[in-house]
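User: My advisor, Dr. K., asked me to get a structural model of this assembly before our group meeting. I'm new to this, so sorry if the format is off. These are the inputs:
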Amino acid sequence: MNLLKSIDKALTRFEGYILITLLFVMVVMAFLQVVLRNLFSSGIFWADPFLRHLLLWLGFLGAAIATSENRHINIDALRRFFSKRMRSAVEVLTDSFAAVICYMLAQASWTFVQGEIADRRILFGDIPSWYAQIIIPIGFGLLVVHFAIRALLHVWVAAGKGEIE
Amino acid sequence: MSVWIFIAIIVLLAFLGAPLFTILAAIGLYAFTSAGIDTSALIIDLYKIADTPTLIAVPLFTFAGYLLAESKAPKRLVDLAQALFGWMPAGLAIVALVTCALFTAFTGASGVTIVALGGLLYPILLKEKYPEQFSLGLVTASGSIGLLFPPSLPIILYGFVAKVSIDKLFIAGLIPGVILIAFLSIYSLRVSIKAKVPKTPFEWKNVAKTLRVAAWELPLPFIVIGGIYGGAFTATEAAAITAFYAFVVEVFIYKDLHFFRDLPRVMKRSMILVGAILMILGSALGLMNYLIDQQVPQRLFEIVSQQISSKITFLLILNGFLIIIGMMMEIFSAIVSVPLILPIAQQFGIDPVHLGIIFLTNLELGYLMPPMGLNLFLSSLRFEKSIFHLSKAVVWFIIMETVALLVITYVPELSLWLPRVLGTQ
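Assistant: The format is fine. Below is the predicted structure of the whole assembly, which you can bring to the meeting.
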């Protein structure tokens, strides 16, 4: 159980570093683009597609961390009335379900990316678009890992053998 | 038969608290598979997130909002507002309403307001001799007002989903937003007169002092509100400036947040919200397209129009429906229902911009509704009061908001006049 916890923790920390770097790039670059456009009537030609794809990366990394911190948006009205162990038992069910769905989405997005590679789509300049899109299958893959770990951890709690957080 | 089993399982999982994006994705996967379409088509729709320039505003505004919430900006804001308006009857209550509205607009309706500002305002309200019940109701209700003002995230998302200009929505929300605050202010005025709340005298010295302290943050609302209302720049450009400016001011000028100790935490927290929102949006996009492809909205309209013939009845039922949704779901997931409602509403002659305003006002009210409204739970955690106690405290706020909602719903000109006059596209 401790091993699972530390795997999740290490993964989340790694995701956090990338997330912070990318958000920093986005804040600076979006501002720079506004300044260039409005004050100098110019701009970086690839900034817009770059920023739009950066959003995708931020979204998936944020979602991965949201999973490990149990911050996804859900209907928790019913859950509030459960006891602690009962809640964990339910979490095993819902987290396993989420892991399966994310796995199917990861597969679907891998098919999507393969199609883009085969079509030799271009993002801008001579950068192939799959460089940016690869985050979709990777992101869903990360979600599978986080959800699966959560489900396993909750088996422990439901059995009355430990705590999470 | 198997369809019904699938629906039963999905509904059960949703109510047991499975992440909503997985629920939406499961429905999408099921629908696509049974229609014989490859599931990668779902991803093609999800990928549209990277195709919409306005969505870049979402992480930028969220980051700016979290920066402000975690700094001492709420305190500076309250101090300044109190120095300016504290002398008026019900001054402090109105200060609370206005600052909370401003703050909610910046942070989205994620409960940040109740935690950051409510906790600050509640003790001040009590100290100034406002009744306990009223103060509690006020800080609870204030958690969601302000969704109609820029740069509110739900408006941006509604615009994206409904394919309506975001700038136009922001301008349309101005008058209804002010009406909502005005109605709550009237009630606050009545309470403070009845409870004989003492007024604080107006002092130039205080105004000057608090102005100086908050000087660096003052341009922010003007960048956003002035920029968008004045047409100086788009919502996305305003977001870029706001995020950069808030970052520089809070980290390097006020030094409320340490670059290495605090900033990574704030960044991560804000992006968790962005991730959660984008997952819902991404998994809903494919499903929405499928439903529209299958002409589900058209069929729904045919069913609805057999039962309801007048626009007024339709709006009334819509109000009730949305309040229940708002009570049960976060605003961000409720927005997923827009593509189903919008075509029906248009058949009844309701403008998509007006629908957006109705939609968000309803959800604001839904947040307050006992027994499940989100604000009640946040407030109950923050102030350690029972849901029952809070439900009693918000009764009058619900009544006043309902009246405002009805006015906003049945007088479309309140929403549509300003964008028309300004000629916003």
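One thing worth pointing out at the meeting: The two ends of chain B are 48 Å apart (CA to CA).

User: Perfect, thanks a lot.
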